[in-house]
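Lecture notes, unit on protein representations.

Consider one protein chain, 425 amino acids long.
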Amino acid sequence: MQRNESHGEGFVYCYDSLYSLLFYWGIITFRLHNHNDGGPKSTPLRIIYALAVRLGLTLGFVGGIYVKLSDLEMSKAMFSQLSPLVKIIFTWESLSCILTYIQCCVTLDGHRKRHIKLLTRMQLLDTRVSAQFPHVRWRYNRSRSKYWYGTVGITISYNIVSLALMFETTHCSCGFVSTVLIGCSYAWLTSSVGAMGFVHIGLMDYLRIRYRLIMKLLEQFYRAKHDQEELHQSIDKLFEFSKCCSQLLTEINAICGAVAATGIFYDFTHMTCFVYVLCQKVLRSESLDTQYAFISLHLVVHIYKVIITCTYGYLLQREKRNCLRLLSEYAVHFGDQRSIQTRVECFQHWRMHNNHMATIGSSFPCNISMIYIVFNGLANYVIVLVQLLFQLQLKERQQRTAIVIPKGVELINPIAQITHQNTAM
């Protein structure tokens, strides 16, 4: 099935499921609608619902931990087998997941109007392209399947693994209700941030596909044997659409860049902590158990998110670069006419001042190099933590091998060092 809806219905069909997921989890306060229904909009009732969900998830997670800590038996079952450093790691994980969720919500609330305007402009761009080039057929169903089923599948798997890991960590022999409360709220808090990361990927993929469409149309026009006024008007429209895509990229960076940076930083700290926990279990020669599998599967999701985010950022950068280069060859294919040369020169001047790329935060480029930065930092921090683990293990061995003086023995003089002279005497 190929969908070619006008007025942005195809865009809503493609992205409405993802944005509905974000809304029901309290990340955003608006829903997607097509132009006939007023476009994306937020209402007071939706804002109240989002605030209630945020408050419920946060209080549920904090309340579950408080119940565990307030009961001596549940606290002992959860923390007695953990080393002091691992206790610090789980404390940091608990704080960071809450702070990351709140920061994402606050950031998106601050850019709510700008976000709605961005989605409206994306719908209008597809409408304008369809009006100018009626033969273009949008394969929204393919994109929707890729975004929706991929995100839902990963989210469900992540929630199941998170819940199982929480049951394993808390040793759920007692306090079943509090364990379920902690596990579910933790899984929803972290997966909500991850879902926003996948929406960011979907928006970058939107621009990547539009740049590729412009290139396909340009290649068709460049192969045309006859010089027609209508042909040049169509190419002028492609210049305009490419500039519009560049402006949309700037808006995506402004809205999703800070959220992506927060998500990547949380992924980095999470991977650092959990890789250390795995290293500790290996170095202590602990027997293989289900916790190994749950932690490893948990890490796989975060590693996948970092890699796929940076990969789509790189693909978008490559498609944009190829598209702008192909537009710059306009004069070469049509005899270097003076009017065409002037347009190309103006475009080159615009390109010099609008050389945007997908970013994480305000300045870090979202490309393959970011993968190296994240995993290089991960390796360095894990090495430092493993060295600290070796020092703690050495200290424990020294304490075990220390000479224990019986209670019935009293030392009159301190024991002196035995030398050859003392032996001879």
